[in-house]
Amino acid sequence: MENIITKYCLIDSTKVIVDGKTEFENSANESFGDYMKSIYRHYDFKYPKYFKMDNLCKIAFIASEIILKDNEIIKTLDPNRIGVILQNSHSTIDTDLSYVDTIKDKSNYFPSPAIFVYTLPNVMIGEICIRNKFQGENTCFVAKEFDPDFITEYVNNLMDSEKLDVCLTGWADFIDNNYKATLFLVEKIKENQKDNISFRPENLKKINKEG
Amino acid sequence: MNKVYALADNIITSLGFTTEANFNAIKNGISGIAQTNDPKITQVPMYTSIIDSEMLKNEFTQFGDTTDYTRLEQMMILSIEKAVKQTTIDTKSNDTIFIFSSTKGNIDLLENRRQEFDTERINLWAIADEVCRFFSNKQKPIFISNACISGVSAIITAAHLLQSGKYKNAIVCGGDIISKFTPSGFQSFKAISANPCKPFDVTRDGITLGEGVGTIILTVKKEFVKDSNPVIFRGGANSNDANHISGPSRTGDGLYFAIRNTLSEANKIDINIDYISAHGTATQYNDEMEAKAIGLAGLEHVPINSLKGYWGHTLGAAGIIECIAGIRSIKENCLVKSLGYNELGVSVPLNILTKFEKREIRNFLKTASGFGGCNAAVYFSEENAD
Description:
The complex is a heterodimer. Chain A is globular. By secondary structure, chain A is an alpha+beta fold. In chain A, a hairpin with a 3-residue loop joins strand 1 (3-11) and strand 2. Chain A has helices at 32-42, 55-68, 93-101, 113-116, 123-132, 148-160, 201-208, and strands at 3-11, 15-18, 21-25, 82-88, 138-142, 166-175, 178-188, 197-198. Chain A starts with a strand and ends with a helix. Chain B is an alpha/beta fold. Chain B has eleven helices and 16 strands. Chain B has helices at 19-27, 53-60, 71-84, 107-112, 124-134, 150-163, 181-188, 253-265, 284-296, 308-311, 318-332; strands spanning 4-12, 34-36, 46-49, 96-101, 142-144, 169-176, 209-210, 212-219, 231-240, 276-277, 303-305, 334-335, 351-352, 357-358, 363-370, 374-382. In chain B, the strands form three sheets. An eleven-stranded mixed β-sheet of chain B has the order 5-4-6-8-1-9-16-15-10-11-13, with helices on both faces. A three-stranded mixed β-sheet of chain B has the order 2-3-7, with no helix packed on it. Chain B has a two-stranded antiparallel sheet with strand order 12-14. In chain B, helix 9 (284-296) links the parallel strand 10 and strand 11. In chain B, helix 3 (71-84) packs across helix 5. Chain B is globular. The model of chain B has no long low-confidence stretch (mean pLDDT 96). At the A-B interface, helix 3, helix 5, strand 5 and helix 6 of A face helix 4, helix 5, strand 5, helix 6 and helix 7 of B.
């Protein structure tokens, strides 16, 4: 049985694309924080915890919310069979640098647990899992570039071995105001489903280029 | 599906640079944890397990120039070198894949803004590139950064890739160093123990950090295996609490799901497990959550220990070195005592090992949990057992 992409979302510094359509544009050329807040307001999201997140979590979280916001069916599925598998290049280096600033001087030493907790890249997966009550397989891979060949192989293996029914997967990276997220919702194909996008490397590569 | 054999391994910690040195030390109840006042690590005296820099330098110079590689890369190269030497596998072969795990990688470069390495080297994938280049391996490596379950995640990922037939051998290497970064963070959480950590004990008051690297080589090629009754990977799974990013679940349900899915993949329907190697970080919440998860799985009768009292919490290495110790327990038919434990301090009556024991061990379950709400479990057994 083939696995398919039932929804995807790409966020880069200029626009938000959902299933091939541009749903929001950064026409005012806002900074990352303001731009994310504008997207948050555009979709009328209400999740106060969002404002505590670091930038990597913010972009991954916003992309996941856009994909999942009207999905009522997913709430009825077994949470242990919904996974989140993400890949990224710069881990949490951006937040690591902010954290290092709080510990480098003996005279100005104020390490904060609220920053330290965001110095692990899988925490973005944790935030998405908490929001949606997903409890299945969750792994954060770090690679220089988005690797659709590996991601499709890994996720298809989890789906085909009956460990997962649904998987949110893709790429989220943030470093020094360069950022991009491309997330895909992957499900098993159902009978009579047509016009689907197969969850194959070539389709991930094509979609990732839309940004 | 291909059978995945545990072929060879190595552990590098403060207790020694070989699996034998480490396992002999822990069998004798020797801990590598000591107090440090090193300003490069901590502002206040702290217990930790640190690898001797001179010893590392002396060992590494046999294989490479210490100025070309960071502290963590040197540890990883040394560990892989020592593990590979026990086998006939070819690190250059396209049948061999390298899989790495670490939480913070070359974090010392970021703290010290060290000029001798270019800025790219702070990336986790740059470590993988350097190590693969050293071993002339051209396959794209895999790097996992899944907080404190990273090592177990790396083993599971490797084993599943081998089962699917994509590769014949996997060199799984995980490690973390101790610099100022991680201790200060855990101190800010008030999660560092005032004394060497005491997993599952009633007086436990937090973790002890340690540095280390572990390497395990997995293969599907039985002809490489010299052991008449080798240890094989039987199953592994991970899960998420979906509860809190820095606090474990209050119910243990997430870890329980990982244990259940692991045993189900292993087709292990009975609960005759010989040994559980727990995560046992010695924080109040982790140990209580873990005890509840083990209770939910009906495994509270199984002999259990935490090895954190010997080499501390080695973060990205922990899952790997603790699995290697589990494999040793099978091979030597013995169980190591849970160092630091005196009196039960969790709500489920676990069967915690209070002394070194000789007994037949055919299998073990290893558990791990971490920030981000992640949990993992992996199950190994002798090929000819259950």
